[in-house]
Amino acid sequence: MHPIVKLVAQRLALGALLLLAASALIFGLTEALPGDAAQAILGQAATTESLANLREEMGLDRPALTRYFEWLGGIMTGDMGLALTNKLDIATSIQSRMANTLFLAFWAALISVPLAILLGLIAVRYQNRWPDKMISGVTLASISLPEFMIAYILIFFFAVKLFWAPSFANISPSMDLLDKLHAIALPVAVLVMVVLAHMMRMTRAAILNVMQSAYIETAELKGLSGFQVIARHAFPNAIAPIVNVVMINMAYLVVGVVVVEVVFAYPGMGQYLVDAVVKRDVPVVLACGVIFAAVYILLNIFADVVSILTNPRLRHPK
Amino acid sequence: MMKNIPLSAMIGLVITATYFIAAALAPIITPYGMAEVVGDVWEPSSAQHLLGTDQIGRDLLSRMIYGGRTTIWIATLATILSFVTGASLGFFAAVTGGWIDMALSRLVDLFMSIPSLILALVILSSIEATVVTLIVLMGLLDSTRVYRLARAVAVDISVMDYVEAARLRGEKLKWIIFREILPNALSPLVAELGLRFIFMVLFISTLSFLGVGVQPPLADWGGIVKENKEGINFGIGAALYPAVAIATLAISVNLVADWVLNRTTSLKGGRG
Amino acid sequence: MSDTLLKVRGLKIGATVYPPGEKPHDIDIVHGVDFDLERGKVLGLIGESGAGKSTIGLASMAYGRGGVKITGGEVWVNGRDVMKSGLKDIRKLRGAEVTYVSQSAAASFNPAKKIMDQVVEAAVEQKKFSRKDAEQRARTLFAKLGLPDPDNIGERYPHQVSGGQLQRCMTALALCPEPDLVVFDEPTTALDVTTQIDVLMAIKEAIADTGVGALYITHDLAVVAQVSDDIMVLRMGNTVEYGNTDQIINNPQEEYTQALVSVRSIEHEEKPPTPEPVLTVRNITARYKGTNFDVLHNVNVELHPGQTLAVVGESGSGKSTLARVITGLLPPRDGQIDFAGRTLSGDLAGRSLEDLRELQMIYQMADTAMNPRQTVGTIIGRPLEFYFGLRGDEKRKRLIELLDEIELGEKFMDRYPAELSGGQKQRVCIARSLAAKPKMIICDEVTSALDPLVADGILKLLLDLQKIENVAYLFITHDLATVRAISDSIAVMYQGRVARYGSKSEVLSPPFDDYTDLLLSSVPEMRLGWLEEVVANRKMESAGN
Asked: Which CATH number covers residue A186?
C-alpha cells in the first residue's frame, strides 16, 4: 500500500475516533452535571417522587452508558427523539434549519474565501506598505469586537439609517433566490467580516512563510518574473497551508453562525440551539451540539488530509 | 524603564488602567445606582445622563460602569483560573512526560476539538448560570488553550542545552522549573495573558447577549446590548456603547500585549 | 568584447535593520570593494562571518537578501553596468549570464517539483535551449558531476537524493544555461569532509570543462586555495588583501591573512599514557529509545588524567552518542564505564553528586548552553554554590579567578549571554565547567560553530587550562585539524564503531585502515595542488586494485 493511503486512512480513523469521543463528551457533560430532563420539565419545585416517576417514564433511570449508545444510534439513523418543550420531532426541525444555516454559511464562505486570499496576496505584495498596514489594523479591530456587536453596528447603519437591507433575516422556502439573498445580506456581511480579517492575516503569514524559503530565492535568481515565481514555485507549496487557513476559518464560521442567527432571528440551527439552551431542552441541545461539533471536526480532518495529500515528501517517498 | 515604553503601549496601558480603576470604583464614581430607574425610556444624552437612559429608564452611564465591573471581574477571574490550571498542568506534563503527559494532552485535544462556545452552551443547558459557575466554566474551558501553549513552550525550553546542563549538574526539579524554565517561558505566557483576557471579555459578553450568561438584574456589557437591542430599530444607539467599550478595552490590552512580546523578544536570543 | 567578465568598482552595500524595540536604521555591510574577474577564471572570496562575502556575490546578480541593497559603486557584467539596468534586463542576466549555487541545496530546491524541471527551468525560460536540448545538457552535466544514474536522477524529487548529490544537482542547475559566471556560495560547507572532496572535485572539473568564470565564496581558505586563481580576503565589509592564490597562500602580506593561513597550526606534543586512566569505557553498546538498531557497537576507549582523547568522525558516526552515554543521559544497553577509580551508574539518576561534579560537559552551541536570563556571574557562580557551598565574598573571589582564567575579567560578571560574542560565550561555558573542579570535561564540537581564528583562541585556552588544572578532555569533533592540534590519543569512529584507536602518533601514521585513510586524505590542506594530488592518488589506487 502506498504510504500516503495509509496515512490518510490513519487520519480518517483517528477522526472517527475523535467524533465518537466528542459525542461521548457532549453527552457526558449534560449527564454528569446536576439536573436532567425530568428536572427541567418539572422545575426546581418538583417533589422527589414525581421526579422519580417521570424519570422512569422517560427511561432516565437506566444506566447512562445504555442511554448514550441508544442516543448515538438514534443520531446515526436520523432519529433524534422529541423536543421536551414542544414534543416536535427534533430531526424534522433540524432538517429545514440545517438547510437554512448551510445556505447562510455557503454564501458567507463563497464571498469571504476568495476575498481573503486575494487580500492576503495583496498584503504580501505590498508587505509593510499601507495596504498591508491597513489590513493588520482592520484585523486588530475585528478581533476586538464580538460578532453581535459588528452585527448591530451594521444594522444601525445599513438597516435603520439607510434601509439597504432588512434587520431581520426571515427566509422561507417560497421566496426566490434574489429575495433570499437580500434577506440574508446583513448576516452574510457580518460573517464575512468576522472571518475575513483572520483569514487574510493567516493567508498572509502562510504565503510569507513560503516566500521566505530559499527555493524562492533560487527561482528569483533564475530570472523568473514575479508572477512566474509565485505561480510555479510559491503556489504549489502554499496550497496546503492556505487550505488549512480556510478550514480553520470555516470552523470559526460555525461558531459565528450561532450568534449571528440569534441577532437576525434567522431560522437556522444556531438559533435553535440557543433557544433550546435557554429553555433547557437537553435533547435538542445534544442534537445541535453534536452536529456543530461534527462539522467542526470534519473540517479539521479535511484540512489535515489535504496537507497530507499535497506534501511531496509523502507523495513521493524515498 | 518607563521612558522606553512606546507611545502605543503607553496609550494601551492608560486606557486599560482606566477601565480597571473604573471597575473597582464603580459604586463611588457612578452618578446613579445600577438598577435605579431615574428617567424616561431611552432618553437622549443630556447633562444629567451623559449617555442617556436605557430601555426602562435607568442611567446608561451608570449601567455601563457597573456592567464593565461585572464583565471585567468575571473575565479577570476566569483568566486567572485558566492560567493557573492551564500553565501548571502544561508545565507539569512537559517536565514529567510519559503517560501523564500523554493522557492530559489527549484530553485537551478532545476538548479543543469542539468549539468552546458550543461546549459552553451544552453545559449551560444543564447548570444554573451564576457568576461563579460562569467563571469556572469559562476558566476551565479556556485552560486547554493555555495548557497547549505552556506545554509547548516548556517542552521547547526543556530540550535546551542549558536545561540539560542543569540536569547534568544534578539540580533538583524545583530549580529546573523555577530557575531555568519559568523565567524563559514567562514572556510568551504574559503576552498570551492579554489575548486570553480579551477572549474572556468577548466570551462572557457573547454568553450574556445570548441570554445564558450574566442574568438580570446584574448588568454586564453583553447584557446591556441584549436589553437595548430593540432600540436599534428606532435608531437609538444605546446598544452600541458596549461595542465601543469592548473594542477600546480589547485594543488597549492588545497594544500592551504586543509591546510585552516585542520587548521580551528583543532581549536578543530571548529563548534561543 | 573585452576579457573582463565581472568588474566591480567601489561597491557599497547597506541594509535597513529593524531591531525590535528600536527605531529602524540603516547599516553598512560592505564599504567599497573593487575587483575584476576575467572570463573563465575563478576568484575566491574569503572571510569570517559578517565579512560581507555572500552579499558581494549576490550583488553581481543585482540581488539583495531581505532589506539588503547596493548603495554605491559599479558592478559591470559582460560590459554592462547592472546598477544602471532596469529590472527586465536584470532578469535576463539572472539565470542566463550569471547563476548561483547556494550553501544549502536541500533548502534551495523546491520540494514540490522534480529535480529535472528545476535544473532546466532557467535555460528554457531564458530561451538558451529548447526543453529537449536543456534536458540532454542536464543529463550530460549529471554524468560529468559524478551523479549516479544520470539519465534518470532528474525524475526524482529533491528529498529523494542525498545531501551531497543534491549539492551536485544544484551545480548542474547553475551550469545548465551555459552561464558566463557562476556564484558558488559556500557550496561544500554543509557536507562531511569525505563528501566535500568529491563535490569539490566535481565543481572544479565542471568549471574547467565549461570554461565558465566563477566567484567562489567560503570561510575555508584551504578549500578556496584548491579551486581559485585569485583570492580576495574580506573582513567586516572591507578588502584586507587581494592577490593571486599562490601569493595569498604562500606569501600573505597582511597580518590578518597570515593568521588565516596559519590557523590550526597549534603544535601540541603528545603525552605518554599514565598507569591509571581517569576514564575507561568498556564494551559500550547503545541505542535510542523507540528505535531498533544500535548506534554504538562495543566501544572501548581510555582517557588518562590531564590528557586529551579526540573522538573523531563524520555525521552519524556515533561520536555524540558516546558523549551522551558517558554523561549518563543515555543509559547503555551493555558495557561499563569506570571513572576515577569507580564504576559509574549507566543512568544519570544513579550517579552521586561527586560523579556529576567531576565529569563536566561543554556544548557545541554556547548560545543554547547558557540560560539567557542569567548573568555570567550566576551561570559560573551556580556550580560554586551548588557543589562547594560558596557564598558572598568567597564566591566572588573564586568567580573573579575563573573570569581571569578565561581571559575575560571581572567586568563581565553582570553581563547577559546576549551581550557576548560567540567566542566569549564559549569561554563562559568553559569557566562554568571549570568551576566544578572536574577531573574530566567532555567537549562536544566546542569550536565548530566558531570562526577559525576565534576557534584557535578557544583551543589555545583549553590547552593552557589543561596544564594548570590537570583536567582531562574527551574532545568530540569532525575536524581533523583540531584533532592534530589538541589530542594525545585519538579514536576514529565510523558507523557506531571505533575504526581506529591509539596514541596520536600511532593513529596518524601509516599503515591506515581504509576509512581512516579516506578521512585523513579528505581534509583540505593549505597548499596549492592538494586536491589534484589526492584525486590522482585515489585514481591510481583504484586502478591498482
From this structure: 1.10.3720.10
Q: Nearest-CA residue of chain C relative to A314?
A: C159
- Number of Cβ atoms within 10 Å of the Cβ of C38: 16
- Which triple of cell numbers denotes residue B53? 437612559
Question: Starting from the edge strand earliest in sequence, which strands make up the sheet with C342-343, in order?
Answer: C296-303, C279-286, C334-339, C342-343
Helix, strand or coil, per DSSP, at residue B96: helix
State yes or no: ipTM above 0.85.
no
The C residues from 350 to 369 touching B (CB cutoff 8 Å) are 351, 353, 356-357, 360-361, 363, 365, 367-369
Residue A172 lies in a domain: yes
Count up the domains in chain A and report the number.
1
Angstrom CA distances, C192 to A32, C376, C476, stand at: 61, 34, 15
B272/C418 Cβ within 8 A: no
CATH number of C41-65+85-261: 3.40.50.300
DSSP letter at C82? Answer: G
What value does the CA radius of gyration of chain A take, rounded to a whole number of Å?
Answer: 24
Tell me whether residue A54 is in a domain.
no
Q: Which domain holds residue A197?
A: 99-278
Q: pLDDT truncated to tens, each residue of chain B (272 aa)?
A: 445 677 888 888 899 898 898 888 877 777 777 677 777 777 677 777 677 777 777 777 888 888 888 899 999 999 999 999 999 899 888 887 788 888 998 899 888 888 888 889 888 888 888 888 899 999 999 999 999 899 988 888 888 899 999 999 999 888 888 889 888 888 778 878 888 898 899 899 989 988 888 887 788 888 888 888 777 777 777 778 888 888 889 888 888 887 777 665 544 333 32
Mutation site, A208, A218, A310, A318, interface C, largest C CB count within 10 A: A218
Contact A146 B206 (CB under 8 A): yes
Stretch C332-356: mean pLDDT: 91
DSSP string, A116-180: HHHHHHHHHHTTTSHHHHHHHHHHHHHHTS-HHHHHHHHIIIIIIIS-SS-SS----TTS-HHHH
Is residue A75 assigned to a domain?
no
Domain ranges of chain C: 41-65+85-261, 279-509
Q: How many helices (H) and strands (E) does chain B have?
A: 11, 0
Instruction: Domain C279-509: give its CATH code.
Output: 3.40.50.300
Indicate yes or no: CB of A221 within 8 angstroms of CB of C63: yes
Q: Which three cell numbers stand for residue C316?
A: 552519524
A221 pLDDT higher than 50: yes
Interchain pair B180, C371: CB under 8 A: yes
Q: Is the dihedral of CA C247, C253, C254, C258 positive or negative?
A: positive
Q: Does C438 touch chain B if contact means CB atoms closer than 8 Å?
A: no
Which amino acid is present at B76?
T
Mutation site for B-interface testing, chosen from C18, C360, C368, C419 by largest number of B Cβ within 10 Å: C368
The three cell numbers locating residue C390 = 560558596
**CB pairs < 8 Å spanning A and B:** 150
Residue A181 lies in a domain: yes
Q: Cell 556544548: give the residue.
A: C363
How far apart are alpha carbons C330 and C291 in whole angstroms?
13
Q: Which residue has the cell 437612559?
A: B53
* Domains C41-65+85-261 and C279-509 are alike in CATH topology: yes
CB B146 within 8 A of CB B111: no
State the smallest CA–CA distance between residue C381 and chain B in angstroms: 13
A44 Cα to chain B: minimum distance (Å): 11
CA dihedral for C473, C479, C483, C486, sign (positive or negative):
negative
Answer whether B197's CB lies under 8 Å from B75's CB: yes
Q: Note the pLDDT of residue B269.
A: 35
* Cβ contact, residue pair A33, B127, below 8 Å: yes
